[in-house]
Amino acid sequence: xxxxxxxxxxxxxxxxxxxxxxxxxxxxxxxxxxxxxxxxxxxxxxxxxxxxxxxxxxxxxxxxxxxxxxxxxxxxxxx
Length: 79
Fold this sequence. Notes:
CATH superfamily: lambda repressor-like DNA-binding domains
Shape: globular
CATH topology: 434 Repressor (Amino-terminal Domain)
Mean pLDDT: 91
Number of strands: 0
CATH architecture: Orthogonal Bundle
CATH class: Mainly Alpha
Helix content: 40-55%
Low-confidence stretches: none
Oligomer: single chain
Number of helices: 4
Structural class: mainly alpha
Radius of gyration: 12 Å
């Protein structure tokens, strides 16, 4: 999917794709990340696959702590 930078949802798509990238780099499944964060597997899946339209800063903070990465990792440009 081509991401339009002018779309208000752009930042959510980028963050979701980066969560997926980092999760996979760490060798975790969506189920494992869900267990670590206490969010449902469906929530993790929806965020990674652009099905969630918004999510909170608190969500990103919890994910960053559990994945042991700084929050700015979620905002890296995806090609």
